[in-house]
Amino acid sequence: MSVHKEAKKVTTHTLVEMKMRGEKISMLTAYDYSMAKIFDAAKIDVLLVGDSASNVMHGHETTLPITLDEMISHAAAVIKAVDRALVVVDLPFGSYQGNSKAALNSSIRIMKEAEAHAVKLEGGAEVVDSIARILSAGIPVMGHLGLTPQSIYKFGTYEVRAKEEAEADKLLSDAKLLEEAGCFAIVLEKIPSALAHLVAQHAKIPIIGIGAGSEVDGQVLVSHDMLGINKDFSPKFLRRYLNLYDTIKGAVEQYVADVKAVDFPNQKEQY
Ligand code: KIV
Fold first, then answer.
1. Does the pLDDT of residue 2 top 90, yes or no?
2. Eight-state DSSP code of residue 97
3. What are the sequence ranges of the domains in the chain?
4. Quick one: pLDDT band at residue 231, thresholds 50, 70, 90?
5. Could you name the CATH architecture of 3-240?
6. How does DSSP assign 152-185, residue by residue?
7. Is 17 a catalytic residue?
8. Which alpha helices (H) appear in the chain, and where do they start and end?
9. Which residues are CB-neighbours of 18 under 8 A, at least 6 positions away?
10. Which whole number is the average pLDDT over 115-143?
11. Which atom of ligand 1 lies closest to the CA of 222?
């Protein structure tokens, strides 16, 4: 029996019910036990173990280098911390594209080794076979359209996507395809808010935006960005709720000074 049985857990069905009653869904990324514990206590609805871990946890320039083993390690730590939130884990680059069997195997590893609740992958028509195969094993799938960072070398920039009609039309048809394939939700990243609104209006599944305006069913942000842990990423869509970079730096500077001055530890801080 689970030791966490008292908490009312968020499920993929909860999210659909939230959309139906017009309650917005809150989602943040998490990559480790301690942060995930705080976010869950704050009643976040969904935690995404995003492949943005490649940037903010591993220091890579893009999301491409992070491995499936690394994602599973982050996910397992997050899952241990969570009583209530739904935990979705990104399939990393190279673990699902162009090969539905590999996609299923990668997803099974995430569900089995990390005990995650769902997976997320990027793309539309190109990955629909993989989505169908993952779903056939009973694993819930979240889609991701618009700016899909694993395709950065195809796009060439991190600019707003789907501003032109042809790309907007493809996004609309991809969103429909993902819903028909059985995705339980879709993330829309960095697209015009009017287009995101259109997708959310027509979809029965929740549409979660990041840089996609307010007329969607929920919002997701990278936790390191909204907490101000990194200072060098300031897109227009980002609201910083804290400036943790300066707060932590200040605390560490004070600690260094206290150690040097033999002010720490004092009489009360020793045995
Ligand atoms: O990896 C990630 O953090 C994401 C969010 C930007 C949605 O996919």
1. no
2. T
3. 3-240, 243-271
4. confident
5. Alpha-Beta Barrel (3.20)
6. HHHH-S-SPP--SHHHHHHHHHHHHHHHHHT-SE
7. no
8. 12-20, 33-41, 53-56, 68-81, 100-113, 128-136, 152-155, 165-181, 193-202, 223-226, 244-260
9. 24, 25, 45, 206, 217, 218
10. 98
11. 3
Please identify which of the residues 164, 189, 215, 253 carries the catalytic annotation. Answer: 189
* Average pLDDT of the residues in 138-160: 96
Q: Which residue has the tokens 């991190």?
A: 158
Q: 264 C-alpha vs ligand 1 centroid, how far in Å?
A: 40
Taking the centre of ligand 1 as the mean of its atom positions, its distance from the CA of residue 158, in whole angstroms, is 13
- Residue the block writes with tokens 């029996």: 1
pLDDT tops 70 at residue 129: yes
pLDDT tens track for 169-205:
999 999 999 999 999 999 999 999 999 999 999 999 9
Residue 74 carries which side chain, given as an amino acid letter? H
Q: Is 49 helix (H, G, I), strand (E, B) or coil?
A: strand
